[in-house]
Amino acid sequence: MKKLYLLIVLSCLFLINGNLFASESKQEDKFDVNKLIMNHIKDAHDWHILDYTDKAGNKVPVSISLPIILIHNGQFDVFMSSKFEHGHKTVTKGNNTYILHDNKIYLADAQGGLSYENKEGEQVLVNEKPLDFSITKNVLAMMITAVFLLIVFLSVAKSYKRNPGRPKGLQAFIEPIILFVKDEIVFPNLDNKTNKFLPFLLTIFFFILFNNIMGIIPIFPGGANVTGNIAVTLTLALFTFFAINLNGNKHYWKHTLWMPGVPVFIKPILAIVEVMGMIVKPVALTIRLFANITAGHIIILSLVSLIFIYESLVMSPVSVLFVLFMNVLELLVAFLQAYIFTMLSALFIGMAVEGDH
End-to-end CA distance of the chain, in Å? Predict the structure, then answer.
């Protein structure tokens, strides 16, 4: 019964999402699939909710305005993204005039616009960029996830204080997942160092898992492609990188920089290979998570777009069924990618802190 309820809810969500796409497609002669997909998977300075058509037949976007925080030439500027009016207006603060173009902020040229130069047969935008510390869509999504995680785990912690015996409710749902991470991922790789690294690895697991799940939900506060943003996955991988190398024991560094048991003339070569391996580990973690999550979003949006590519309601049931299938698969991928990232992190840390053999 619960599975049936989940399928019904997902169907409703994607039918709603399909209507939003339809309202946009009516305003354009040709439906641009690439633009739709890229606008979704990229970060943005506002959170687009939907478009509707007013009485005059104009498309009116509805979005959540986010804070813009910029620094240029010693000038600190703060304003809301609504000032740009979805890229139709420039914003002047003191001596700086800012332009929003393709979800990025540039400084206007002397004429108050954008400048292009021809480089190798291509028109390249040459406007200068300010230092951008804005609260973007992905940043807000991570904040929402962080608050959600705090609510969930503080609630579970209080439940344990009130009811230390048999778990109930949310406590009963979360406890098996925590025990799975501890007993099946962390302990086999870290043994007696489990308790030291368990908080870090649990945090990574649930942060990735919750962001993955939120990304599948097509309406606010879901829909942000957080773990499909390479800057986010790189940051998570760097945390693992520092956890590995700051906790590596003398045996780890000895085997990395001056491999024992091999001829002296081979040791420098092996040292170079091992140092390259240190860099490859976080790179592999970064690309694996980024690529899998982004690919899932692209496939789902492509399937939804079939309705508007063929301009036929006949495609609606087929498209929705495929999307439902992909969402169930993406739900599995959400757990799987959180598991793989945490498992590899535990494995790499375990290799750095294990004793000599």
Answer: 53
The structural domains of the chain, with segments of one domain joined by +, span 67-134, 138-353
> Quick check: pTM over 0.85?
no
Buried-exposed string 244-258: b where 16+ CB fall within 10 A, e elsewhere: bbeebeeebeebbee
> pLDDT averaged over the chain?
82
What are the tokens at 274? 């091992």
Give the C-alpha separation, 1 to 91, whole Å: 53
pLDDT at position 297 is: 79
The predicted structure's pLDDT at residue 355: 64
Task: Spell 77-112 as b/e; 16+ CB within 10 A means b.
Answer: bebebeebeeeeebbebeebbbbbeeeebbbbeeee
Phi, psi of 14 (to 5 degrees): -80, -25
**Max alpha carbon distance in the chain (Å)?**
81
Angle at the Cα of 87 from the Cα atoms of 86 and 89, rounded to 5 degrees: 110
Q: 92-96: list long-range contacts, CB under 8 Å, 24+ apart.
A: 96/70, 96/72, 96/130
Alpha helix stretches (DSSP H) within the chain: 2-25, 33-41, 137-162, 170-180, 187-190, 194-216, 230-247, 250-257, 267-310, 315-353
Ramachandran area for residue 71 (φ above 0: left; ψ -120 to 50: alpha; else beta): beta
Rounded CA-CA distance 49/140 in Å is 14
CB 227 within 8 A of CB 289: yes
Residue type, 190: L
**Spatial distance between the Cα atoms of 212 and 155, rounded to a whole number of angstroms:** 22
Q: How far is CA 41 from CA 234, 300, 332, in A?
A: 16, 11, 20
For the stretch 154-167, what's the b/e string if a residue is b when 16 or more beta carbons lie within 10 angstroms of its beta carbon?
eebeebeeeeeeeb
